[in-house]
Amino acid sequence: MALSSPGTGVAAGTDSARTAAPTRGLLPLLLVGNTVMYALYIGVPGFVLAMQVAGIDEANKVGNMTVVSGVSAVFATIFNPIAGAMSDRSGRRNPWILGGGVAALGVMALLGSVNTVLLVTIVWCLGQAAMNFYQAALTSVVPDRVPLASRGRASAAVGLGIPLGSTLGALIGAAFSDSYRTGYLLFGALVAAAAVLFTTCAREERRPGRPAVPFKEQFKSFAGALANHDFRWAFIGRALLILGYFGVLGFQLYILQDHTKLPAGMDPASAAAVLTMVNSAASVVSTVLGGWLSDRYDRRKLFVGVSAMLAAVAMIFPALSTGWTAMLVFGAINGLGFGCYMAVDTALVTMVLPKSEDAARDMGILNVANAGPQIAAPFVAGLVVRLSGGYTALFLVAAVLSVLGALAVRPIRSVR
What we know:
Helix content is 78%, strand content 0%. By secondary structure, the protein is mostly helical.
């Protein structure tokens, strides 16, 4: 999974999008499209891929999963702006949504048939490529087609796809943990069906294509944005929290297998599904309340800092106890913290962008703080687990990273 959006960004839009009414039924289609996308991003690596890798070599599953997750995350991060740029240059979104969705089904079918770690890594990278075409084009629909007055509702539809998709992915992943081939096919079929539904019901007008931006100019833009004091600290805070969050999330199934004492009759896959639902429910509540309260009191830094500290507190419970209750408390508090953080921190970032005319570019740069730590997370987490001989140290390291993420917003000057 990559919690990022493509290089086209989310903050800017075309002139027609600023004034035109949104396509009828577009918001439900965005909700469906994002829900199935996050279901695959959560369900595949968190459940069926993890079970497949463990089945290939149980003794070395942590190291092998570290390699598969890390390599595929690097590939996805590199491919994300490429997919976005190709969509931009074509002036179309629907063909890329449809092509990416249908390709994802084919790759999922292939992934279920391979039986070595090397082939799993290669094919999962192909799956990341297909999903990045789908994601890059789907994410760009909001700035392309939704007027400014409706952006809040559209962002809510997109944002709710994360907890809803996480729950759906966990339920499907748990149900097919012993039959990962069927699980792969179901995840691919859902994305393909959503792609067909979206492109059939949400027609688009062809927009003028955009010229390619040379790599040298992109690098200058990146460096220039990070030279801004407030934007740099917002970038650092996001990167630290994401690193801690995904360090634990990437090994959740193995944590439930090897660290947590589950109730009698509950298997790790079912426990992971329950934990994901608890986390998602808490995340939905805190996303809505956090955004509303931060608007009402005009205190972005306060809510970002408190929510990051909540994420840190959540890590302490499973670090101190291997009981199932501790994991449930962890899931609930972590969901509250992460949901509020992502909602309010995104609002904070839009207020510290270096230049309003470069909003889309700078929001794209922020995506590096989402995607980069997801690359490092499996390697860092795997190293911590191997050196410490267990998962307690992993929770403690994640807690420290969350605290540092909370402290990183304090130097920001232009936002309360």
